[in-house]
Specification:
The structure is a single chain. By secondary structure, the protein is an alpha/beta fold. The chain folds into 3 domains: about 5-180, Rossmann fold; about 190-350, 3-Layer(aba) Sandwich (Rossmann fold), CATH 3.40.50; about 360-555, Thiamin diphosphate (ThDP)-binding fold, Pyr/PP domains (Rossmann fold, 3-Layer(aba) Sandwich). Helices cover about 35% and strands about 15% of the residues. It contains 24 helices and 22 strands. Strand 21 (about 515), helix 23 and strand 22 form a beta-alpha-beta unit. Helix 12 crosses helix 14 (about 340-350).
């Protein structure tokens, strides 16, 4: 007879069948059978100090591993509700994550029980691809496997499983599943006609580009992008989630999408665009047409048909997997000769240094005890080891990092996406470190963002995660203050001031060796020493609040009222 075990232990076996080797969690007795079985099935638990950080870590793990399933397992009640922001973040950015939460016993429903009395599945449903409550112990394996496949297949995204404590602990004689027989679904490829049409577009174009997005990264298509770019002579531009899709020094890698806007400004707009797993919207210029010109022919490869036609209809819509489509294009294009368009690629690459040039002549120490934020971030980028993954958190601070990042590869630059969620940095850094323990990680955070999950320094120490945290401390909510000043004039501010807090002392209290830096000259040596230590480190870098990132003014927009009622971060409301 099969040895009886708690039914919840088989959830760990099902996770192993999905290829899961890492789970991010915070303890709660509701899920003890799952936690205790993880070691048996080759799964490492990384426990954080707050469930939000565990959720963000699972999200980042999926991003940094190029599409492996990120898993977060937390307790009932507040354990679940603390993860809602992480779920929403993964949902808007389409990241394959599985959130598992415990719940009060089903047999005590409506009994005013501990951590019960609300419908977690209903709360999760609007911000997940799929949400379900497991009501039968013998169906745990079935539903864990199904949840994982839903998260990974088609347009990826988060899913949620609630497993009540009585279902989790129920004794079962069910055998451990034979996960060696489990097969992943085959993703859909493009039609031959679509492949021919894309290649015809490249033949005709003078200034074609391939814009890679998160879909290309999550399908691990970096090498395929390189092959296609070299074959057809089309440079690769990366949306935010795909920065580093090609090596930074590759002649056909043109970096961030802002380069296309610069090319248009120089009178050489792209005339043909292949979107590969890249969604149209805020990060590609929205409806303004500055990045993707209205006159350009657009072919869009997207596994989610709901994204076709968002913002503008593609001239050639292709509903297919990014990697499968690239494979088909490479196979067909390999049999002919192509124009190399090296001058066009070089032009786009030439714009990559514009962000540094913009503040190159500004003093590095703008005043006594304060560093120019652009120079501060550049100094860190120049001093850190090659191949370092970069995490960015915050508004102004995130923009400085985004402008100057030297990505270590696809999925190795992580920052808040469409949700615009602050506080993701420590969880993201933890998840990225677990995704590749051999890769070093630097975590940039504004002094506002770092306060959300500052207790995760403890997680870094307990798990010996050599994350270098750089806090850009200007003692304020920088983007918010600047937006208020632009809209209402100087001295019209509300709840945007912070204190020059000794964050290095806070980190030291958790066991992280830390230092305060208020002179530019001290930054590079401190970064070199921090990375050489091989331990968690924290640098509290004092930056000048008077230096506003230029994108803040762009995001706030026209404040004169001539273009309608000004509202920050969105299009102005037209006057009636």
């Amino acid at each position: 007879m099969t040895k009886k075990r708690a039914a919840g232990e088989l959830a760990a076996a099902a996770l192993a069948g999905l290829g899961v080797t890492e789970v991010f969690a915070l303890h709660g007795s509701h899920l003890d059978p799952l936690y205790l079985a993880c070691e048996e099935f080759g799964i490492r638990l990384t426990d954080t100090r707050h469930e939000a950080a565990a959720g963000h870590a699972a999200d980042a793990y999926a991003r940094a591993s190029n599409g492996k399933l990120g898993v977060c397992a937390v307790t009932a009640g507040p354990g679940f509700t603390n993860c809602l922001t992480a779920m929403a973040n993964a949902y808007l950015d389409r990241i394959p994550t599985l959130f598992i939460a415990g719940a009060a016993p089903m047999r005590e429903a409506e009994g005013n029980t501990l951590q019960g009395g609300f419908d977690a599945v209903a709360m999760a449903r609007p911000i997940t691809k799929w949400a379900h409550r497991v009501g039968e112990p013998d169906r745990i394996v079935e539903f864990v496997r199904r949840a994982g496949e839903i998260a990974l297949a088609g347009p990826p995204g988060p899913v949620f499983l609630e497993i009540p404590i009585d279902v989790m602990f129920w004794p079962t004689e069910q055998a451990v599943p034979n996960i060696s027989t489990w097969k992943r679904p085959t993703p859909p490829g493009p039609t031959p006609e679509a492949v021919d049409a894309v290649l015809a577009m490249f033949r005709k174009a003078e200034r074609p580009v391939i814009i890679a997005g998160g879909g290309a990264v999550l399908s691990n298509a970096g090498e395929r992008l390189r092959q296609l770019a070299e074959l057809v002579g089309a440079p690769v531009i990366a949306s935010q989630k795909a920065l580093g899709a090609l090596a930074d020094d590759h002649p056909y890698y043109a970096g961030a999408a802002a380069g296309l806007a610069a090319a248009a400004g120089a009178g050489q707009p792209a005339d043909a665009v292949l979107l590969v797993g890249a969604r149209m919207g805020m990060f590609l210029g929205g409806a303004m047409g500055a990045i993707i010109p209205a006159e350009a022919y657009v072919a869009q490869v997207e596994c989610n048909p709901e994204e076709i036609g968002r913002v503008r209809m593609a001239d050639l819509p292709i509903v297919a997997d990014a990697a499968a489509t690239l494979d088909a294009l490479i196979a067909k294009a390999s049999g002919e000769s192509w124009a190399k368009r090296e001058d066009w690629a070089a032009l786009l690459r030439s714009f990559r240094g514009n962000a540094r040039k913009a503040f190159a002549d500004a003093p590095k120490n703008t005043k006594l005890g304060a560093i120019h934020p652009g120079h501060a971030v550049a100094a860190v980028m120049d001093a850190m080891p090659a191949g370092t993954a970069v995490i960015a958190d915050g508004g102004e601070s995130g923009n400085w990092v985004g402008d100057l990042v030297r990505s270590a590869g696809a999925g190795q630059f992580l920052r808040c996406g469409y949700l615009g969620s602050l506080g993701i940095s420590s969880g993201f850094a933890i998840g990225a470190t677990r995704a590749d323990p051999s890769r070093r990680v630097v975590c940039f955070a504004g002094d506002g963002g770092v306060g959300f999950n500052i207790q995760e320094f403890d997680t870094m120490v307990r798990h010996d995660l050599p994350i270098v945290t750089v806090i850009l401390n200007n003692a304020e909510w920088g983007m918010s203050r600047n937006a208020q000043n632009l809209l209402y004039g100087k001295n019209r501010e509300a709840i945007v001031a912070l204190r020059d807090t000794a964050y290095h002392q806070v980190a030291a209290g958790f066991g992280v060796e830390s230092v305060r830096i208020d002179r530019y000259e001290d930054l590079a040596p401190a970064i070199v020493e921090a990375f050489a230590s091989g331990k968690p480190r924290c640098l509290n870098v004092i930056t000048d609040a008077e230096v506003m990132h230029p994108r803040t003014r762009m995001m706030v927009g026209d404040t004169s009222g001539a273009d309608g009622v000004p509202i920050p971060y969105y299009a102005n409301i037209p006057q009636r």
